[in-house]
From TrEMBL:
A cellular-component GO term for this protein: PAM complex, Tim23 associated import motor
Compartments, record wording: Mitochondrion inner membrane
Family: Belongs to the TIM16/PAM16 family.
InterPro entries according to UniProt: J_dom_sf (IPR036869), Tim16 (IPR005341)
Superkingdom to which the source organism belongs: Eukaryota
Presence of keyword Membrane: yes
Region (Disordered): 105-126
Species per Swiss-Prot/TrEMBL record: Eleginops maclovinus
Record's compositionally biased regions (Polar residues): 110-126
Keywords noted in UniProt: Membrane, Mitochondrion, Mitochondrion inner membrane, Protein transport, Translocation, Transport
Keyword Nucleotide-binding: no
Topology with respect to the bilayer: Peripheral membrane protein
GO BP annotation list: protein import into mitochondrial matrix
Protein name from the UniProt record: Uncharacterized protein
Length: 126
């Protein structure tokens, strides 16, 4: 009886071990693919951050945007630009930050929608 119980425990441990190893391999492969995709987009995004002088997160905070949709960006931009107009007692500094934030988010949307260049595809195939 103890012998059968020990065999069941060992077989169960082997099944769980194989399943865990397979899940770990799949997670590692998915992580590698995400890192490669992030690397390509990340290089463009870093360049855009240095050009505009503003990070993506900062631009999203300024325009109060959680997802990058053109409608939300434009709506929030229009509202904040009007509210901070000097003629109505607003701040030129804040208005310029709003403009820079919109430029940064527009650049990020261009990066996300542009197809990968042939040069980056060749690097991933080799």
């Amino acid at each position: 009886m103890a012998k059968y119980l020990a065999q069941i425990i060992v077989m169960g441990a082997q099944v769980v071990g194989r399943a865990f190893a397979r899940a770990l391999q799949q997670e590692f492969a998915a992580s590698q693919a995400a890192a490669q995709a992030r690397g390509r987009a990340g290089q463009h995004s870093a360049a855009a951050s240095s050009i505009t002088g503003m990070s993506l997160q900062e631009a999203q905070q300024i325009l109060n945007i959680s997802t990058l949709t053109p409608e939300d960006i434009q709506k929030n931009y229009d509202h904040l630009f009007k509210v901070n107009d000097k003629t109505v007692g607003g701040s030129f500094y804040i208005q310029s930050k709003v403009v820079r934030a919109k430029e940064r988010l527009d650049e990020e949307m261009n990066i996300q929608t542009e197809p990968p260049s042939p040069k980056s595809q060749q690097n991933t195939e080799t």
